[in-house]
Design goal:
It is built from 77 helices and 30 strands. The strands form 12 sheets. Strands 24-23-25-26-27-30 form a 6-stranded antiparallel sheet. It has a 3-stranded antiparallel sheet with strand order 3-2-4. A hairpin with a 6-residue loop joins strand 16 and strand 17 (about 1255).
Length: about 1900
Amino acid sequence: MAAAAAAAAAGGPQPPQPELPASVLALDKAATAAHLKAALSRPDNRAGAEELQALLERVLSAERPLAAAAGGEEAAAAGGGGGGPGAAEEEALEWCKCLLAGGGGYDEFCAAVRAYDPAALCGLVWTANFVAYRCRTCGISPCMSLCAECFHQGDHTGHDFNMFRSQAGGACDCGDSNVMRESGFCKRHQLKSSSNIPCVPKDLLMMSEFVLPRFIFCLIQYLREGYNEPAADVPLEKDLNKVLQLLEPQISFLEDLTKMGGAMRSVLTQVLTNQQNYKDLTSGLGENACAKKSHEKYLIALKSSGLTYPEDKLVYGMQEPSAGTSTLAVQGFAGATGTLGQVDSSDEEDQDGSQGLGKRKRVKLSSGTKDQSIMDVLKHKSFLEELLFWTIKYEFPQKMVTFLLNMLPDQEYKVAFTKTFVQHYAFIMKTLKKSHESDTMSNRIVHISVQLFSNEELARQVTEECQLLDIMVTVLLYMMESCLIKSELQDEENSLHVVVNCGEALLKNNTYWPLVSDFINILSHQSVAKRFLEDHGLLVTWMNFVSFFQGMNLNKRELNEHVEFESQTYYAAFAAELEACAQPMWGLLSHCKVRETQEYTQNVVRYCLEALQDWFDAINFVDEPAPNQVTFHLPLHRYYAMFLSKAVKCQELDLDSVLPDQEMLMKLMIHPLQIQASLAEIHSNMWVRNGLQIKGQAMTYVQSHFCNSMIDPDIYLLQVCASRLDPDYFISSIFERFKVVDLLTMASQHQNTVLDAEHERSMLEGALTFLVILLSLRLHLGMSDDEILRAEMVAQLCMNDRTHSSLLDLIPENPNPKSGIIPGSYSFESVLSAVADFKAPVFEPGGSMQQGMYTPKAEVWDQEFDPVMVILRTVYRRDVQSAMDRYTAFLKQSGKFPGNPWPPYKKRTPLHPSYKGLMRLLHCKTLHIVLFTLLYKILMDHQNLSEHVLCMVLYLIELGLENSPGEESDEEASVVGPERCHDSWFPGSNLVSNMRHFINYVRVRVPETAPEVKRDSLASTSSDSLGSLQSSRRPKVLQRENSGTAQVFSLVAERRKKFQEIINRCSSEANQVVRPKTSSKWSAPGSVPQLTTAILEIKESILSLLIKLHHKLSGKQNSYYPPWLDDIEILIQPEIPKYSHGDGITAIERILLKAALQSRMNKRIIEEICRKVTPPVPPKKITTAEKKTLDKEERRQKARERQQKLLAEFASRQKSFMETAMDVDSPETDIPMEITTAEPQVSETVYDCVICGQSGPSSEDRPTGLVVLLQASSVLGQCRDSTEPKKLPITEEEQIYPWDTCAAVHDVRLSLLQRYFKDSSCLLAVSIGWEGGVYVQTCGHTLHIDCHKSYMESLRNDQVLQGFSVDKGEFTCPLCRQFANSVLPCYPGSNVENNLWKRASNKSIQDLIKDVEELQGRPGAFPSETNLSKEMESVMKDIKNTTQKKYRDYSKTPGSPDNDFLFMYSVARTNLELELVHRGGNLCSGGASTAGKRSCLNQLFHVLALHMRLYSIDSEYNPWRKLTQLIEEMNSQLGNEEQPEVPILYHDVTSLLLIQILMMPQPLHKDHFTCIVKVLFTLLYIQGLVALSVKCSEEDRSTWKHVGALRKNTCEAEKSYEVLLSFVISELSKGKLYHEEGTQEGAMVSPIAWSPESMEKYLQDFCLPFLRITSLLQHHLFGEDLPACQEEEEFAVLASCLGLLPTFYQTEHPFISASCLDWSVPAFDIISQWCFEINSFTEQHTEQGKALLIQESRWKLPHLLQLPENYNTIFQYYHRKTCSVCTKVPKDPAVCLVCGTFVCLKGLCCKQQSFCECVLHSQNCGAGTGIFLLINASVIIIIRGHRFCLWGSVYLDAHGEEDRDLRRGKPLYICKERYKVLEQQWISHTFDHINKRWGPHYNGL
C-alpha cells in the first residue's frame, strides 16, 4: 500500500479493489482501534503505546515521500506498483479517523467532542471576498468584524455599522471582549457558558493525544520533502502548488478537527506547542534514513532563508545536534565597519549603479547587535514554529492560514502562536520581498496579523516578552534599506543624504503595507505606544527610518523642453509618506493627549530636531534653497510640527521650551515655504514642461486624505517660525521666494530678473493669498476639534452641494481611528445638521437621477462662509469660483447684495497665547511698504495687477486693524541705529498709526528705457519738473512697475545682512552668504538695461489711497463720506451688518470705519481728506494705449450683448421649429374639421425633411418617411389578472410561476386550438405578439428616404465610436438625436379623400355588409414597382427581423403564408394594446394625450394593409360570412374528415376586427368601419353571455332560462340581455357543455348568485377592452378626438363615440349594454348557428370546450416585481444562492426584475452558444430587453438588444445616496419614485431615449 503513494500526484487511474477485503479491513481498523484504546486505558500502558507507535509508523510512514512533487519522472516509475492515486494517503486518513474515534464511528466521535465545546467565541475564519459586518458602535478595536450570522443575531439597531467585502480575509470577533463591547455579542455568544459545560472525560480524547503528534510530524515531513529551493530561472509557484494540492486532504482534516470545538483545540494546542514531542520526533538522529533525509532538507531550507543576500558568506554550524536546529549568522552586520569594505556589492545594489552607496547603506544598518539576532536567527522548538516556517516558505497557502487561525479561540494557543509569528517576522518580510505574488501574500499576512495585534492585552505581552517593537522597527528599516538612492536635493555633488527610490517595486506596489499596517495597529494600543515613546533607542531608529522619506521624489523644473517621460511614481511617494510616516505619527499623537505625557513629546521633538539637523548637514544646506527644485515630502518637519501643536494644545507645554534657536527656525521655514511658492508656480503654469504629473502632485498635496498630514503641518510650522522670527525678515523672505520682489516698486516699469512677465500677476496673487492664509488660518492655533470639523464642513459645502458620503470622504479625518473624530461619529452628524439642510433626491423625468444632497443653511452663507478655508481646501481652482458663484447667488436671492460681491471678511477664533507673535507680521514696516506700494500701483493702473490683488491687500489691512497691538505709542518713531533709513517711509511699526502717515517723495530705480528717464535728461531733476513732464502722459505716475522696490527692499537686503551677522558669528561665512544676493539680484549690471534713480512725488498715505480707490471703484467723485458724521452711533456699536457683504467699495468703507474706531487721529485725517475736494482722479487725458483698452472693453461688451441677442433669437426659432416638427406626423389634425361639402379644399399633407430642409408631400417616386424605432417587446405578455403585484422571491418558499401571465394564457389557448382545429383557421382566431411583439415608435420627425440613405452612408464612413451600430440600420434622428433604426414610409394621399370618407352616408347596414364583403373579395394587386412600394417592402422586412423567429412562427407547417398574415395583424394589435397601456389601461383621459401626437399608427396601418391585401382569404373561410350570413346546410361541414374550423365563438373579436379592417382597401370609408364594428360587437356580446352562462351555477341557469323565455317575443327582444341569455342557455343545453364532470366545476363556478347589476357589470367589463382598442383605432384612422369621461361611464361614452349607440338614446334610466346591439340578421337564428358549432365540438371534448369559452379579458397593467423595503433581505438571500443551471454560487449574481429569474452575470459556466446567461435571458424573457438587479452592486443594468447600460440604483441609503458596488455597506432602502421611473421607462419602451451611456455587450453579460 505504502509504495503506491507516490502515484498520488501522477493522477493515474484507480484499479478497482475487491469489495470484500475493504470492509473486512474497516472492521479490522475499528477492532484494532478499540483494542489499542483499551490497552492504552490500562494504568500501565507502555505496551499499548509501543504497539500504537509501530502501527502509526507503518501507516503514516514517511518513506513514501512526495516524489511527485520533486519531479514527475520518478513518480511515474514508482507509481507502477498499483494502488491508486492518493490511496495510501486516504488509507492513512481513514486509519487516523478510526484511531481517534477509538473503535467507534467517527461522526459519533465528532458529535461527542462538540458537546464539550464552551462556545464563548465565534472565531469563524473567512477568506477574501466574504461578506462581513463592522459595527463602530460596538467595536473597541477599529479592526473588529462579525460574520453575518452573529451580526444578525445581535442587536445593532441604530448603530453605526456597515457591511463590507473582506479584502484579505478575517475572523469573527463575536464573544471577544478585548475587541468589542459585550452589548454587541450575538445570542449564541452572550452567555459565558464555560461554567456549565461538564469536564471532558479523559478517555474521549486519549487516542488523539497519541495519534496527532505523529500525524502533524508526517505533514511536516511532507512539507520538507516537497520544498525545493527555486532555481534561478524557474519560478517556484508551480512546484509549491503541486505539493499543496496533494496535502489538501490532510490540512482539511486538521481544519475539521479545529471545528470540533474547544476540547479538541486544546489537545491540538498541546500537540503543537509541546517541545519534547518535537525534539523526539524531528531530531533526525534515529536510524531511520528517511527521517535523516528530511531533516537535512529542513536544514538546507533554513540555511537558504536565513539570509538577506544570497551572495553573503554563511557561518553555518550546528549547535547541540540533539536540539536539531541551526543558528545562522551573517558576518558583517555585527562586526566592525571595517569588514564592510570587502563585502561584494549584491545585485540589488548594482541596480543603483554606485557601489559606494551600497557600503553606506550597510553602515546605516550596523546600528547595534540587535539587528543580527532579529534578522537572521531562527530556532524551532515546537511543531507550531516549524509549521509556521513552512507556511511562510510556501507563501501562506490559504488552507494553512485558515487552520492556524481556526485555532485562535484557544487562549494558550493564541499566545504561543503570536510569539512564534513575531519570532518569524523578519523571515516573513524577506519572503514577501522576493515573492512574485506579493499582493496575495500581503493579504494573507494581514489576515493573520490583524487577528493577533488588534488585541491590546496580547500586543502588550508580546511587546514585553519578545521585543515586538524592536523587531518591527528593525524589519521596516531593513526593508527600506534595499531601495535607497542618493538624494539630489540642494547640493547634488556632495549630498550625503539617501532617500527611498519611489520607482522601486517595493514602493510602487505598496509591498511594505502589511508591515506598516501591523505597526500602526500595535501603536493604537496605549500601553505599546507608551513603551515606544519612552525608548530613546527606538525613537532614534524610527527617526532614521522617517528620514529615508525626507526629500524623496524630487522634482526639478524643466526650463527648456518638455520632459519626455512623465513618471507616475509620485503617487507611490505620497502613499509611502502617508502610510509609513504619517499614520504611525497620528497613532503616537493619539496617546499624547494629557499633561502627564509631556515627556513623550519632548523625546520625540528632541530626536526629530536632531534628525533634522543631520539632514541639513547631509544635504549641505546653508540658507538658500536650490532654485527650481521642489519635494513635497518633508515627514521630519511634519513630525516636528504635529508634536509641537499637540504639546501646546493638549499638554500645556511652553512652546519656547521645545523650539530651537533662531538659526534652526530660519532653516526649518525654508523648505515648507519653498513648497508654498512652488504651488503658486505650478498653478501659474511655470512647471508646464514637467507634464501633468506635477499638477497631480500639487493636487494630491492638498487633497482631503493627505492635507492634514501635509499642507496643514507645513503651514503650522511656518506660522510657528513667523511668530518667533523677525517679521521684516519673514515678509521679505516670502516675497523673495515667490519671486515678486522686483514687482513691488512705485515705478511704472521694472525688470524682473527671476520671473517672466506673464507669470508675475499670478505669482503676486499667490504670495498675497499665502500671506492671508498664513495669518488667518487657526487650525492648529486655538480652534477646538469641533470648530475645526465645522469649518472644514462649511468649506466643502460652500464649494458644492455634497452627498453624505462624499462629505465624509472630503473632511480630512485624523487618520488614526482612535482619535475621536471618527467619520459618522456623533459630532459629525450633529455638526452636519447644524450647518446644512438635506435636499431629498429629486427626480427629473428623463433626466439624470439625483442623489440626496446637503446644502449650506442661509445663516452659514451669511456668517460662516470663509473664503480662506475654501482656498486652502480646493483641489481644483474652479471650486473657489464655484463657491463664490454660490455665495453671489445667495446674496442676490436673499436681497443682501445685488452686485458681484468680494469674498467676505470673516472674524477669526482668538489666537492661542503661544502664537501671539504671529501678528507682528501685520505690524512690520516691510509689509506696510508692500501694502502702500500695491495700493498706489492699483490706483495708478499699473499693469499686472488684478482685483484679486486688491482684495488680498485690503484683507491684510483689515487683519492688521483687527489685531492691532493696543495703544498707539510715539516712542517707536525714535528708534535708533540703522532703523533710521526707514523714516522716509513709516515712523513706527503699528499699522494703525502708519495708515495716516503721508509719504511725499520716493526714490525709485527705473530702467534707463523708462519714459520718464528720457524726459528727465531735458529738464532739471527737481520733483516739480518731474511731475510736469509726466503730466502729458499720466500725472504723477510712472508707466510700468519696477522701481519702488529698490528703495524698499534694499532695506530688506540690509536687514538680511544684519540678521546674518547675528546668526553666523563667523563673518567670513556671513559675507559669503550675502554677497551673491547683493551683487546678482539687486543690480545685475551687464545683464539688463542700466537702472537709474528717479524721484517720484507721491504725497499719499494709506488712508488717502483707500479713499481715492473708493472713488475709483465707484466711478464717482467724492463718493466717500465718513458715515459717523451722520450717525455717531456707528462708532459706538461698530458691528453693522450693512458692511458684512459687498464688493470692494464696502470693504474699503469697512476698513476706514475700523481705522477711525481705533484712533481719533485717523478719524480726523479721514475727515480732512474727504473735505479737500479731491482733484479729479487723474484727469481723463486718456493715453492712446488706454483708449485702445477702453475701446476694446466697450467693443467686447457690445459684442457680448449682440451674441446674447442672437442666441435668444436662435433659441426661440428652434423652439417654434420643434413645435411644428412635432405636429407633422398626424396629418388629419391639421385640417379644420368644419369643411363644408361645397368647397373641398384639396391639400396634400406636407412633410419637412429634417436632413435637406425641404418641405413637400410624400410621393410615389420620392417618398418621405417617419423616423421610427422598431423593437421587440414582451411587456404585454407580463400583464397578470390580479391587481396584487408579484413580489421578488426572498426565501426558498416564494417562487414565481409564469402561468398567470398574459403571454402564458394566450400561448395555452393557441396550442389548445391547434390541437383540435384546422391550423390555418386557428391562426386567424387569435393574436400573437404578447411576447416578442414588434412595437413601433417615432419621435415625429420625417425625412426623405433617399436623404436618409445618404445620411446612413455618412454615418458608416464616420469612424467615431458611436453607441449604436450603423450596420444594423441604427441611427439617431438628425434633428432631435433620438435613437432609431428604421424609416416608415408615409402613404401619399390628399386629405380631401379623408374628408369625403368622413361624411356619413345613408346606406342601410345590410348594404354596407355587402360592400365590405365585396371590397374584401377584391384581390389586392401589389402596386407597381415604385420607390414607395420598395420602401414599404423593406420596412416590412425590418419589422419581421426585429423579433426572433420563434415569436413569428406559430403555424404547424413552417413558412405557411398564414404565419405572415397572423404576424402582420398582430403587429397592429401589439401597438394598439401598448398605446392603451401607456394611457393607463383605459381611455378616460380622452384624446388630449401626447401619445396621439407622436403616433405612427396611421402610416403603420398603410404598410400592413398593403401587405395583408396580398393574401386573400378564400371567401368560403372568411369569418365575415359566418358573422353576417345564415348558412343553410349546417351539417355539410361536419362530414369532412379533416379537422374542423375554429367555431366563431372561440375567435378573438379584436383580432377579427383587425383582420377585417386590414383586408379592406385603404383609405377606409368611415361607414364601413362602423359597420364592421357593429357586426363584431354582436359576436362579442354573445361571447360574454356564453362565458357568463358557463360561470353560473345550474340553478342560476335554469332561472335565467325561464325568465328570458317569457319575454322572447317582445319587440326589443333582440336588445335585451335576459332574452339573449336564456336563448343561449337553451341552445347550448342541447350539447354537453353544461354537463358537470366530477368536482371539476368548482373551479369555474362562482359561489355568488348573479344579480342583474352584477351581470350588467360583467358584460360591460367583458366588452370594454374591445371598445377601447376600436376607439383608439378609429382615433388614428380618422383623426377623431377621444372624449374624456369618468370610469363608470366609459362604456357608454365609447359606445356612442363608435356609433353603436343610437342617437336618440336617452340617459335617464340606467344604461344597459345590450341597447348597443344592432343585428344585421335575425339574432336568434345566427346565435343558434354559432352555438351549434360549440355543441358539435363539446360532444367529444367538454372540458376543453368550456375552457376555451371563458376568456380572461381583464388584464391589469404590467408591473415589475415588487421589491422589499430593505436591500439586505435581497442581498442575504441571493448573494449565497446557487445558480440553478450550473449549481455554483455565481461570482456576479443578478436577478431579473421582470420575472424573478436568478442568473449568473458574465458567468462562463452558463454560457450557451457564445451567449452568456443574462443576454440569453433578456432574449427569452423580454425579447431582447432585460432589466437585471446586480446583487453585489445594488445597481440595475438594462440590456437592450446588443447594447447595455448601467441604469442606476433604486436602493438608497438613509442620506438618499446610491451605494454602487456596496462599497460603503450602509443599509439601503427602496426608493419608490426611482422604481416607478424604471417601470415607466420599461412600459413606455423609452430606455433607448432616456439613458445616454450605452455600450455593446458582445453577448458577454
